[in-house]
Amino acid sequence: MASPDHQVVSAVTEQDAPIVHLKLAQQALDICRSMSLWPMTFGLACCAIEMMAVGMARFDIARFGAEVFRPSPRQSDLMIVAGTVTHKIAPVVARLYEQMPAPKWVMAVGNCAISGGPFCYPGQYSVVEGVDQILPVDIYVPGCPPRPEAFLEGLFQLQEKVTGRRWWPEPATKGGRR
Amino acid sequence: MNDDVFAGIPVLLEARPDRNRSGLLRDLYLIPEGIVPAVERLFAAGYHLEDISGLDTKDGILVSYHFDHFEKPGRIALRVLSPHDTPKVPSIANIFDGAQWHERELSDFYGVVFEGNPNPTPLLLPATDVTTPLRKAEASRVSLGDLIDPGEIVQMDPRFDYFAPKDNTDAESKEAEA
Amino acid sequence: MKHHLSPEQISGDFYSRRFEQGPDEDTLILNMGPQHPSTHGVLRIILALDGEYIMRAEPVLGYLHRMHEAMAEHRTYLGYLPNMGRVDYLHAVAWNWAYVGAVERLGGIEVPRRAEYIRVITCELNRISSHLLWWGAYLLDLGAFTPIMYAFDDREIILDLLQSVSGSRLTYSFLRPGGVAFDLPDTFLDEVKAFIPHMRARLPMYKALVTDNTILRHRCEEVGDLPLEMCRRYGATGPVVRGSGMAYDVRRAEPYGVYPELEFEIPTENSQDAMGRYLVRMGELEQCLNILEQAVQAIPEGEHLIKGAPKPRWKAPVGETYFAVEGARGKIGVHLVSDGSSTPYRCKLRAPGFSNLSLFAELAEGTLLADAVSILGSLDLVIPEIDR
Amino acid sequence: MVISWMHLAITCFFLAGVVMALGPLVGSFLLAPKSRGGDLGMPYECGMRPLGDAWIRFGVNYYIYALIFLAFEVDVLYLLPVSVVYHQLDMAAFLKVFLFLLVLALAIVFFWAKGVFTWPRRITK
């Protein structure tokens, strides 16, 4: 019962650079983009429920501009892969990524999207072990499912990646960061 | 119990299992041709199909149909043993429409061919590669008699001898006297 | 120039080509899903549309097939528990209970009474949180955004309660063969006692805000007319069959745990439509609160896990068993076969959503596309339990 | 023709309109990166490749809705000049306009009787 080596098709990621490339304009635009990231509702499994919880009143992703969950890839610029990517849905994930307008980012939420998570065992035949085999992933949010706070931290780090600067206070953990 | 439900249907083996251990009220082993008439009887008696589950044993693939009743709860299991190389079982999808999906799932996982299924395409596995993943490696298969203890044998066809040698010495002695 | 799409771009895929031989002039073949806001995950339905009316529908499954049953043959009996929390993450306690009950039946393991009551309390709390999420998501599908905010507001209270017992918010795996893994924190019972009146005060507001809303009435009444006979042909159970007048509940039909000692009714409706299924689930919210009230009073002291409960390397006795539990969506069944080793020989999971969804093709024939969304919402689908 | 404040206001509004409309389009065309290739050009249908295109013949009901819309569009067209001088006119003008609207409303009644507005909840093939 060896797992067949699935030929996983990865998404096309070519992008043309902007015609007018002014550094200042790009920085200003990046700040606007990071403050209004519109995620695409692409909830696959358990992490989708935590994605909904993040959108609701208690954890309230609206404070950071990302509460507009667009169902269609045409109007979204952040693809949150929240759940297990199986071989049957891998071409769909690649196609949805290709159908998103630039600039676009990908956030792999949950161990399934990062590395196949709890469904990796020798001889497994149906799970793509990590969505980064298909898409270029910008932010990994570990957890099974990750807590909504981890979701928000992932969003903050994406904003830091887009603008080069962190906009929100650090979480008060003992270790802190860097 | 209404014993006449299966009157006249060729039964390989009928047993009255220990209910609070196996959860079954009645347990019948039938030949493939006996499934459709038996299921028609159950349909007429108001039963509904719970699920169809497969079991890969050394003596072949055991297909178990579980039925239950809304008003008179009591689970009835019908079982068919089909050989590994050509597992063919007549389909009951035009009696219980819900069975179509259960049968397609079984043909995905075990490769059992249900003749007469209105839509025999793969259900859960990707359409391009159906790999019958639930079939066990030859070495790890266990024979039917070692797996299932049918409980007190009510009636047994001598050819169906999987349960005969070990645990029903009393049944044999009864046969010897009769 | 009619359009600039190359034929290769509109050539469909294996399932849609099989669904419709050649696309003709009159019917539009449309894929609803797998990425669709109202299919709650990755269910795909191919529709043949004549204008807004659905001529033919065919659900296509498998987009979230996570090999739960194949994994059972690679895990020990205790190692397989986390899978149970992920088969149906909205009512994970019921799935835990179904699997653990099957293992207990197989191994003949006793469960102390306190553990039985802990299971009832957490299972009913989880049922309320599952119905709340269904209620919010159903209204979201019908276009109302406010109810899901209220629903999640109450749901977060339950998640905190269950997190204090089990440690996780959603995918619980704290039940063990022979009881539960941890005892209740000492403030838990008081918090549940405080939660019950709070929730009872919220239900009339839900009724006024949504149930009596004429828009919802028009979107749900006479939609998805499901006669009892059709339920039986497809094997539908749970609120779907109770919405068609049959009071079938596994907690009464095949009693398990301490449910026989608790009094609660089984709400049913005879209207057989989406509104009937809706009212059944809203009625179940009240019944869950009744059960919680009785269980919180009657919970005895004692151990929460039996002495000599199975260790990770535990070997189950040879045999086969089938154990059914009433989940939020219907009858959850686990068919467990053991060959005496420490890993299950075969573990078949009977998911209620699988049978409840199989009647959608016949139910949605000839209806409006907007009503098909309402029918899907009223069936309360969770796709991972359907694809397993 | 003397330029009055009115003309200035109109041109300002017009320019603002053009800038608000074309500004983001031109801005995003120049400043934003563009993705290319793959299935970007394919119609988005829930992540699947569509079967057949959407240029099909569909129910006549929708066509009649367009007709009714057109009828009332023209109706508003005629009402515009009337509304400009309406404050100087007398009761007779009111009756004429009322009659005009009444005749148009008959179209609705006709379609209503023909059952265009009744959408059955479920149809059998």
Describe this structure in words.
The complex is a heterotetramer of chains A (178), B (178), C (388) and D (125). Chain A is of the alpha/beta class. Helix content of chain A is 30%, strand content 10%. Chain A contains five helices and five strands; from the N terminus they run βαβαβαβαβα. The longest helix of chain A has 16 residues, at 148-163. Chain A is globular. In chain C, the strands form three sheets. A three-stranded antiparallel β-sheet of chain C has the order 1-2-3. The longest helix of chain C has 29 residues, at 113-141. Chain C folds into two domains: 7-60, no CATH class; 68-387, Cytochrome-c3 Hydrogenase, chain B (Orthogonal Bundle), CATH 1.10.645. Chain D folds into two domains: 1-31; 58-125. In chain D, helix 2 runs antiparallel to helix 3. The longest helix of chain D has 27 residues, at 5-31. Chain D is flat, with a radius of gyration of 25 Å. The termini of chain D are far apart. Classes of the chains: A alpha/beta (178), B alpha/beta (178), C mainly alpha (388), D mainly alpha (125). Chains in contact: A-B, A-C, A-D, B-C, C-D.
Rounded mean pLDDT score of chain A: 89
Portion of residues in beta strands of chain A equals 5-15%
Succession of helices and strands of chain A: EHEHEHEHEH
Q: Would you identify the CATH H-level superfamily of chain B?
A: NADH:ubiquinone oxidoreductase Nqo5 subunit
What's the β-strand tally of chain A?
A: 5
Strand order of the largest sheet of chain B: 3-4-5-2-1-8
Number of domain units of chain B: 1
Main sheet record of chain A:
4 strands, parallel
* CATH topology-level name of chain B: Beta Polymerase, domain 2
Quaternary assembly: heterotetramer
The counted number of beta strands of chain B is 8
Name the poorly predicted regions of chain A. 1-5
pLDDT averaged residue by residue of chain B: 84
Distinct helical segment count of chain A? 5
Largest interface: which pair? B-C, 46 and 50 residues
In which range does the helix fraction of chain B lie?
A: 10-25%
